[in-house]
Amino acid sequence: MRYGYWMPVFGGWLRNIEDEQMTATWDYVSRLARRSEKIGFDLSLIAELNLNDIKGVDAPSLDAWSTSAALAAVTERLELMIAVRPTFHLPALLAKQAANIDNISGGRVSLNVVSSWWAEEAKKYGVQFDQHDDRYARTSEWLDVVDQAWKRDHFSYSGRYYSVTDLVLQPKPVAKPRPVIYAGGESEAAKELIATKCDAYVMHGDPPERIAPKIRDMAERRERKGLPPMKYGVAGYAVVRETEAAAKKEVERITNVKQNAAGYKNYEQWLANTQLEQRVSLEDYSVSNRGLRSGLVGTPHQVADRIGEFERAGVDLLLLQFSPQLEEMERFAESVIKPSRVAVRT
To answer: For residue 121, what are the contacts with CB-CB under 8 A and spacing of at least 6?
Structure first.
């Protein structure tokens, strides 16, 4: 199992807790990134939204791409999974930008391709907002251009959404044959696109028994296409305490839902513009990405057992959220990651 975490570019992950003591600043995220790779974390996902999805649109949020470039220069081994929305970036220019950051990092950049869902954000920033399946058609072309720009020069492409003529991109990324491309989605259009053109599938939080059939489905799609196996990641919100009762008490605190919280309106827009396989609850609103459904709550032993269930289901990567991030990551690394890796070595 690889352990990743969401970089708190929004100043936290809890929509009902105003101050999580993790400011949306370069000072905080740079300290967090440097510390995380020392205590056993393998990857950080840097989300891309120009408005603050968690704390409300008037709250600060960090830009994913300039933040990632800076993090590439101050870290040594941490994989930087940078989220990217095709509607916000021309593919050839994004391929150039990502290749440059990959060179800065020594080959540690990957992409998390997200087909945009937030209509209000797009309007505020003057960006085209397509309907659901149109977004995936656009993303398909976008991926074609990025892939070929990374692999060869004097490349031309003419599609419905994008075209390039005799494109030359140097330097190429360090990562070969290309930086890993992750993507997530639960609609048929999303799953078919991801199985065809991406390298890894990332999922919202769910228990292992719901994750296992999703992995089987994607694996079968890949096999039918004659493509190599994918990697699989799952989101989760982790609460580790010495006792199960203490862990449950913390969950009660963070799921005290306030429907008038600053981020609730944004959440309603996400539901309206996303096709999900199941209904969501107000508790899911409290913690983003259905993180609590993964069940990573309890004592170190209970959480480790749950991680084992995910491994058996076929999961390679956990994308974790914590609050407050630095302190809880320290606890998780010491009580869960470190013992698991000692056990593997022995």
So the answer is: 49, 50, 51, 127
Structure tokens at 36: 């995380």
- Quick one: which of 282, 340, 269 has its CA closest to 311? 340
Please tell me the total number of residues recorded for the chain in this structure. 346
pLDDT for residue 279 is more than 50: no
Pair type for strands 163-167 and 317-321: unpaired
DSSP string, 73-134: HH-SS-EEEEEE-GGGS-HHHHHHHHHHHHHHHTS-EEEEE-----HHHHHHTT-----HHH
Three-state secondary structure call for residue 183: strand
pLDDT of residue 278: 44
C-alpha separations of 341 from 40, 130, 306 in Å: 9, 45, 16
| CA atoms of 91 and 261, how far apart (whole Å) | 36
Is residue 60 reached through a cis peptide bond, with omega within 30 degrees of 0 on the bond before it? no
What gap in Å lies between CA 109 and CA 92, rounded to an integer? 17
> pLDDT tens-digit profile of 247-269?
999 998 888 765 445 555 555 55
**Does the predicted model carry a pTM greater than 0.70?**
yes
Q: How confident is the model at residue 37 (pLDDT cuts 50, 70, 90)?
A: very high
CA atoms of 313 and 220, how far apart (whole Å) = 15
- Mean pLDDT for 97-117 is 94
Nearby residues of 87 by Cβ (< 8 Å), 6 or more positions away:
116, 122, 127, 128, 129, 130, 135, 138
Q: Are strands 163-167 and 155-158 parallel, antiparallel or unpaired?
A: antiparallel
Beta strands in the chain (DSSP E): 2-6, 43-46, 79-84, 109-113, 155-158, 163-167, 181-183, 200-203, 231-237, 239-240, 297-298, 317-321
Q: How confident is the model at residue 59 (pLDDT cuts 50, 70, 90)?
A: very high
Whether the per-residue pLDDT at 39 is higher than 90: the answer is yes
